[in-house]
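stage 2 :: seqdesign
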């Protein structure tokens, strides 16, 4: 029994000694560079390029998303309307261009030629002066107007005589005032008819003078200008559209096409999509909120690869180089090793953060390094503490 106890004690002493020796040998091994730090990821705040009302947010915190997944969308009703308007403008511009390129239609040429003929006839009529028949008709109209005026004047005299006669009878009490007023009204009507007849005589007299004098020079100038314009229009229609007009129409089509592209891009920009595979770390807006351009909606983290942010002392700086293999371990997953590579070495020294090194080591200037790690299962999380070891080979 005593021998068994002594054997157990001996094994414990030897085992403990070997463990102690191994630990301190590794700790003091000059070929090992040890570092501690925290896991970092690429994370971005995602927002819209446009302003508008947030209609829907489809991603929540902690969700895993793939590149191209729809995360949120704005109310796009106004942007869709802009697309429709832009397409309508493009269609109109294309129709104008097609019409110009097709040239003038036969019916348009015929219409322009007919207008020239009409203008020529009108000018010819003015230049030929008044016809004898027109003068005869104007004189007859004047005679008729004068006869009408004489008849109207006779009616006035008769109505006036009746009124005066019956007014005397009224004064003697022979008739009522209503009867007198009736004759007075008839006299007024006759007087107005006479005035209208005299106006017709004056108009007919002026018409006769105008016909005898012939057309005024102003009317002839206007008719001549109208003919010249009709002839110019006919030549333009017959020649077809000018090259510069076609070029301008093409430019309008191109401008309208660009407007359609811009409007369609606004519709696409009203959709917020994941730029890479990752995990939603935070949400910053809810449906119904007004979003300005660039206002964050969600924060997306890229979980593979990740980086360990650590520090190396100045004395070890010359022993490391980019691309060196690194072995990383975490408290969260004891015994599991993550292979990595040194991807960044700072060129400026700095004091080590309090959370990383001991007080004595914090007094030394350190250099920040980054170690890139593959994280396909997303086990390594942002902020997770981790240790790293670089083995220096001779």
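stage 2 :: out
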């Amino acid at each position: 029994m005593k021998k068994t106890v002594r054997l157990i004690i001996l094994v414990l002493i030897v085992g403990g000694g070997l463990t102690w020796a191994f630990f301190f040998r590794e700790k003091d091994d000059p070929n090992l560079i040890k570092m501690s730090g925290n896991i970092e990821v690429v994370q971005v705040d995602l927002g819209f390029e446009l302003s508008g009302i947030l209609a829907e947010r489809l991603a929540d915190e902690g969700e895993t998303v793939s590149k191209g997944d729809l995360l949120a969308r704005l109310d796009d009703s106004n942007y869709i309307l802009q697309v429709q308007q832009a397409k309508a403008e493009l269609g109109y511009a294309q129709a104008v261009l097609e019409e110009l390129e097709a040239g003038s239609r036969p019916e348009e040429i015929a219409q322009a030629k007919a207008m020239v003929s009409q203008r020529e006839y009108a000018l010819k009529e003015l230049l030929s002066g008044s016809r004898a028949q027109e003068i005869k008709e104007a004189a007859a109209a004047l005679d008729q107007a004068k006869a009408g005026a004489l008849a109207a004047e006779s009616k006035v005299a008769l109505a006036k005589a009746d009124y005066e006669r019956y007014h005397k009878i009224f004064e003697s009490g022979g008739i009522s005032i209503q009867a007198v007023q009736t004759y007075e009204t008839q006299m007024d009507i006759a007087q107005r008819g006479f005035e209208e007849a005299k106006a017709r005589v004056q108009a007919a007299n002026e018409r006769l003078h105008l016909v005898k004098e012939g057309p005024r020079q102003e009317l002839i100038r206007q008719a001549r200008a109208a003919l010249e314009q009709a002839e110019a229009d006919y030549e333009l229609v017959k020649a077809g559209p000018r090259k510069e007009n076609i070029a301008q129409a093409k430019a309008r089509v191109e401008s309208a096409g660009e407007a359609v592209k811009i409007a369609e891009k606004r519709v696409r920009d009203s959709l917020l999509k994941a730029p890479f595979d990752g995990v939603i770390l935070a949400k910053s807006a809810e449906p119904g909120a007004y979003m300005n351009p660039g206002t964050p909606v969600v924060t997306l983290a890229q979980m593979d690869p990740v980086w360990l942010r650590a520090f190396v002392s100045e004395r070890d700086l010359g022993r490391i180089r980019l691309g060196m293999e690194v072995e990383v371990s975490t408290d969260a997953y004891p015994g599991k090793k993550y292979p990595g590579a040194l991807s960044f070495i700072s060129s400026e020294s700095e004091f080590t953060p309090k959370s990383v090194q001991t007080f004595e080591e914090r007094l030394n200037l350190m250099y920040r390094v980054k170690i890139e790690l593959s994280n396909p299962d997303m086990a390594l999380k942002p902020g997770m503490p981790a240790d790293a070891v670089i083995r220096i080979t001779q």
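stage 3 :: structure notes
- The chain is about 55% helix and 25% strand.
- Residues 1-26 have pLDDT under 50 and may be disordered.
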